[in-house]
Write a structure and sequence with these properties.
Elements: H1 6-19, E1 23-26, E2 36-41, E3 47-53, E4 59-63, E5 68-69, E6 72-77, E7 87-93, E8 107-108, E9 140-144, E10 154-163, E11 166-170, E12 184-186, E13 194-198, E14 206-212, E15 218-221, E16 225-226, H2 272-302, H3 325-332, H4 337-340, H5 362-370
Antiparallel strand pairs: 1-2, 2-6, 3-4, 3-7, 5-6, 7-8, 9-13, 10-11, 10-12, 10-14, 14-15, 14-16
Helix pairs in contact: 1-2
């Protein structure tokens, strides 16, 4: 009996509903030495927030267990340890893995409010890494110079999407992705301090790399790297980064903030189009699961042969029966054996003689015409 595929689809539907249940929202734009509110729904404790500045050192923030109750969480990051004009992004993780809450937009630190002051000195790096080669589509890209790291190292690849006047940050799901599908890691071998990666990323994509060693110590994050065009597109496939990505939304706010000259202003909040798209996608997925379930049930109910055994694509046709024309006629016309005699016998077996059939002679036939 062929196993039903219905449980598989139900499992996948349940998996995606759980994976998408951890949603995070970032509050008003950050300011130097100010605070930043982060709220979330779902997920599993313990939680951790990582602030990843461009060309700087990421900051890990452990979220206390008291910040999460009744499937709702709220935490205030204070003070923001970056100077005005600095760009960074935020990712949130839970017990199921790194980055499962998604990635925020690219945030720009504004002017300090009311003369706020704090320590904005960057931590000392235990080691660093170099990116000596040009980042081109489907070309080799080299990471080296991380001699001070405890091997093996892990490289986090982060994608920045430029869409109209807004710039958002996320990391993309691909090979070796964690539950939730938001973070992509490169895992260099545990020997040597140089690693070559085939950049299977489309031209025009902007990327930021960060590195951590085997002890979880950061080697910093890179500046933004733009993927340039090449004459090779053979490495691109459906798992390559695309322009359709999901980021942690920012809550609606009033007021303005100072941004760097090269960074256009970013609209905050979730657009109606995004909400409509998410709702439509959820309805479409649910419809597909229900349709597949109905199809499987109907196939199980009606997929049996009327002869009492399950049908199959490899089933054999019944053995054919060879019929002798004479025998067939004798059954249809038992009182007219002269018709049967006009057909040649096709079998070596003599035709059966029925009791009602008496032998006829030519004289008998002539006598019938006389009478």
């Amino acid at each position: 009996m062929r196993p039903s595929i219905l449980p598989t689809f139900l499992y996948l539907a349940l998996y995606f509903s759980v994976a998408l249940s951890f949603s995070v929202t970032v509050g008003s734009p950050p300011t130097q030495c100010g605070s930043l509110n982060v709220t979330w729904t779902g997920g599993r404790a313990p939680f951790e927030i990582v602030l990843i500045p461009v060309y700087n050192i990421p900051r890990n923030i452990s979220v206390p267990s008291t910040a999460f109750s009744n499937n709702q969480g709220s935490y205030q990051i204070s003070p923001i340890p970056f100077t005005r004009g600095k760009q960074f992004f935020l990712t949130m993780s839970d017990a199921t893995g790194f980055g499962t809450g998604g990635i925020s937009e690219l945030l720009t630190v504004g002017e300090p409010v009311n003369g706020a002051s704090c320590n904005t000195t960057n931590p000392t790096l235990a080691y660093s890494f170099s990116l000596p080669s040009s980042l081109q589509q489907c070309s080799s890209y080299i990471f080296n110079g991380y001699d001070g790291a405890v091997l093996p190292v892990t490289i986090t690849v982060c994608l920045i999407e430029h869409s109209g006047s807004s710039v958002t940050y996320t990391s993309f799901a691909s090979r070796g992705s964690v539950p939730g599908g938001d973070v992509f890691f490169l895992h260099p071998p545990s020997t040597g301090t140089s690693f070559t990666w085939l950049a299977d990323v489309a031209a025009g994509t902007t990327i930021v790399f960060s590195m951590t060693d085997a002890h979880g110590i950061s080697g910093g994050s890179s500046d933004t790297q733009l993927v340039s065009l090449s004459d090779d597109a053979s490495c691109l496939n459906p798992t390559s980064p695309s322009s359709t990505i999901t980021t942690i939304p920012s809550s609606t706010h009033v007021g303005s903030s100072t941004s760097s000259p090269s960074q256009p202003s970013t609209s905050s909040g979730v657009s109606k189009g995004t909400i409509a798209g998410a709702v439509f996608g959820a309805i479409l997925a649910a419809t597909a699961v229900v349709a597949l379930a109905v199809f499987c049930l109907k196939r199980q109910r009606h997929g049996r042969s009327p002869y009492g055994f399950a049908t199959s694509r490899n089933s054999r046709r019944p053995n054919s029966v060879e019929l002798d024309p004479a025998t067939c006629l004798s059954r249809l016309y038992p009182l007219q054996p002269e018709l049967r005699a006009s057909y040649p016998e096709t079998s070596s077996t003599s035709p059966s003689v029925y009791p009602s059939e008496a032998p006829h002679t030519l004289n008998d036939t002539l006598d019938q015409f006389k009478h």
